[in-house]
Write a structure and sequence with these properties.
heterodimer, A: alpha+beta, B: alpha/beta, four-stranded parallel beta sheet
């Protein structure tokens, strides 16, 4: 600014001097005067432009200062800010996904298994339903499970199944209630009431089976699901090969199996049922697996001795990367039961006297084999063959084997709902033959997990 | 005395052996196994449960895996509910308490989940309440899960922490160079409209600036219906969709049928390492996927 002031004073003085000179020197200097005037105008115009440019530079300087003040000035600072932002967002995500107090409550899941069935036998089917067709809720199940603390977890299953002998009244009953350890290496202790892993399918709930009806041989020898009150220890041997050993003691094995010596609900050691199992698995290449296991239940009581043996063999084909997600499961169980039972029978000549206990020891072999082919994620189908010998002394057998030939077809709408058709052709002990079919509709909701046993 | 010396020598040898033992690590998918090997180097022995060609939601549960988990020091999981249908059963059967403690390495820690549902319910299909779990195909997510893996290793084996850190930095440098290449590629793919079979491309597409018009599944895990497919075809035609991204675990019949009707091109995308040709490492997988998309765009109709 100071420079500009001096400039104007000099220019003014020059101009004044020029005017005086022009008057004295005459017209020849007029041209020079005109040139000086033009030069003065140009200089004034340039000075204005300089002012404008300087004002712009000042504005840009201010803007730059503002940017410098608001922006980080070094790459390190930029990285530090990004790190901080990352940490803050990670923290925000943690906060958003944190467990809320009510989430510490147990997980709850449920299943409803309903069906339309037809049976053309002259008497009743295996569930005590008369011949004909019927709608029925096969089971309504409520499952609760949760971690108890760092050492234990627990679950409970309540199930209501209609009783055809009681106007289809469905009374909820305690199907399973078990506590398991979670902190032992290679081993798990489980206690309470639960389905012990006898064989392969006995421990699976009805609605989770690959078919609608439980294989009749399992019903006959095991007595429905392999339920019992007791304790078991399951160990996975610390070797590279899968070898699982299980052992336990129970009040009984089999949901339908009667308790021995129910007086006071206490039993001697030899009246308990002892369970042992070994299970191993072999991978053949990447797409094939074979599992093989042997299970045994012993009830050493002298009067009602039970010796039940099961051998299971399962082959699985699960081609990796099959775009159809096709796979195959072929499962077989062979059972042998030695059963000594006591029942009261009237002696000859005195039909009213039933005080004489009769003993009977029978041995039976049986089992089933089935294959389930999964065409894709939704459809699966397969056959099943089931044969078994009678070990119940109160059943009069006209046939060596009770035989059931089954075909089943399943459609899964999603992971949580399924429709299944099953046809059974039965040749029963009493000489009858029968046809039976089911249309089963099953849904699951709430918390839903797949156990290792359902693999 | 001689015996005592021998005993001490054996004990020292045994303790050395134990110290040299690598961490026994199992990864749920091969992506994490590959990166774990890069970071862990000779201090880890890593195996993956999935092979890379399966549906990551439904990897076959093999008993042999339970035996491996029983002896594992660490399990690297995706989290966000990705493995909920198969991994908890294996962990249960393994009876290994380490996998409930420090040995549980969650690769998703610090990932900002996308597609977090506002409505959580089974009517929405097989949704993941915590957000879309397919972050392993997100080119900008590798950095996070590599750090999570390194952090897990450092906790389990602090004596090798500096080695893990050095390997992590080396890997991150490699990744940074690749990210620049991927960002350059993203300029070409920006705004390209596409559909996929399952909603597993969101992290990948967001990085590249691509626009997803929908999925063949009407809802996650629900098979395509005729009406939904017809609606999708109409939308693709109206919006000039250029690509159909097909994941290897789904049949390509329907994608090809739709391609024939819409003019869009079908591109098979690996969603896990080893999930396709050229996807031998995680970086290769992202490279191959991006190149496949660019190749499809360049190809003449």
């Amino acid at each position: 600014m100071r420079f500009r002031g001096v400039f104007w004073v000099v220019i003014g003085a020059l101009a004044l001097t020029g005017r005086v000179s022009a008057e004295e020197l005459g017209p020849q200097l007029h041209v020079l005067q005109t040139r000086v005037d033009a030069l003065l105008k140009t200089v004034a115009s340039q000075a204005n432009k300089i002012d404008e440019q300087r004002a712009r530079i000042d504005q840009q300087d201010q803007a730059l200062q503002r940017m410098v003040q608001s922006a980080p000035i070094a790459p390190d600072a930029v990285l530090a800010r990004i790190e901080r932002a990352d940490a803050q967002s990670a923290q925000a995500i943690k906060i958003a996904s944190r467990k809320k107090p009510n989430e510490l409550n147990m997980s709850i899941g449920a299943a409803i298994d309903t069906s339309y069935s037809f049976f053309d036998g002259p008497k009743s089917d295996a569930n005590g339903r008369a011949a004909g067709s019927d709608f029925a809720v096969r089971g309504a199940e409520l499952v609760f499970y949760t971690d108890v603390d760092p050492y234990f977890k627990t679950y409970m299953v309540l199930n209501a199944t209609p009783d055809p002998k009681n106007n289809d009244e469905a009374v909820p009953s305690l199907e399973e209630a078990a506590i398991m350890t979670t902190s032992l290496s290679y081993a798990q202790v489980k206690g309470g009431r639960f389905f012990l892993p006898f064989g392969r399918l006995s421990m699976i709930h009805d609605h989770d089976l690959p078919f609608t009806t439980r294989p009749p041989s399992l019903d006959h020898y095991v007595g429905g699901e392999s339920s019992g009150d007791g304790v078991q220890v399951q160990a996975l041997l610390p070797i590279s090969h899968f070898l699982q050993i299980t052992g336990g003691a129970f009040n009984k094995v089999g949901a339908e199996t009667p308790l021995t010596n129910t007086v006071g609900n206490r039993r001697d050691g030899n009246e308990l049922s002892y369970f042992a199992k070994a299970l191993t698995s072999f991978d053949i290449g990447t797409d094939h697996t074979i599992e093989w296991g042997v299970s045994s239940v012993q009830n050493p009581a002298t009067e009602t001795r039970r010796d039940l043996l099961d051998m299971e063999l399962t082959y699985k084909w699960h081609p990796s990367g099959s775009p159809l997600r096709e796979r195959l499961v072929w499962g077989t169980e062979i059972l042998r039961e030695d059963l000594r039972t006591q029942f009261h029978a009237a002696p000859a000549g005195d039909p009213l006297d039933d005080s004489i206990a009769q003993g009977a020891a029978r041995r039976g072999y049986g089992g089933y084999t089935y294959a389930e082919y999964f065409l894709n994620r939704n459809w699966s189908l397969g056959p099943r063959v089931d044969l078994f010998e009678n070990v119940d002394p109160q059943i009069v057998s006209k046939r060596t084997y009770d035989q059931t030939y089954t075909a089943f077809l399943s459609y899964k709408f999603s992971e949580f709902s399924r429709l299944r058709f099953e046809y059974d052709r039965q040749y029963l002990f009493d000489g009858r033959s029968a046809n039976q079919f089911y249309l089963q509709w099953t849904v699951f909701w709430g918390a839903h997990t797949h156990s290792f046993e359902q693999r | 005395m001689k015996l005592n010396c021998s005993l001490i020598a054996i004990l020292i040898w045994c303790s050395t052996l134990h110290a040299a033992d690598p961490l026994n690590v199992i990864a749920s998918i091969p992506d994490f196994a590959e990166i774990a090997r890069e970071i862990g180097g000779a201090h880890v022995s890593v195996e993956s449960i999935a092979r890379g060609v399966e549906d990551p939601h439904g990897v076959p549960v093999r008993a042999s895996i339970a035996a491996k988990l029983a002896r594992a020091d660490a399990l690297i999981e995706m989290g966000l509910g990705m493995e909920h249908a198969w991994l908890p059963a294996l962990i249960d059967a393994s009876n290994n308490p380490k996998l409930r403690g420090d040995g549980d390495i969650q690769a998703s820690e610090g990932i900002t989940p996308k597609d977090v549902p506002l409505v959580v319910g089974r009517t929405e299909g097989e949704q993941h309440a915590e957000g879309n779990p397919h972050f392993n195909v997100g080119p900008d997510c590798g950095r996070t899960f590599a750090k999570n893996i390194a952090s897990g290793f450092k906790k389990l084996s602090p004596k090798y922490a500096s080695d893990f850190e050095a390997n992590l930095n080396k890997y991150l440098e490699k990744l940074a160079k690749k990210e620049i290449e991927w960002q350059a590629a993203a300029k070409k793919l920006k705004g390209v409209k596409f559909i996929s079979y399952h909603p597993d491309m969101v992290y990948f597409a967001d990085f590249l600036g691509m626009e997803q018009l929908g999925t063949l599944e009407p809802k996650p895990g629900i098979p395509p219906s005729a009406s939904h497919t017809a609606d999708l075809i109409a939308l693709m035609k109206a919006q000039h969709a250029q690509l159909i991204l097909r994941e290897p675990q789904y049949s390509d019949d329907l994608p090809r049928e739709i391609a024939a009707q819409t003019g869009a091109k079908v591109v098979t995308i690996a969603i896990m390492v080893n999930g396709g040709p050229g996807a031998k490492t995680w970086i290769d997988m992202i490279d191959t996927n991006i190149k496949s998309l660019m190749g499809a765009l360049d190809a003449k109709p």
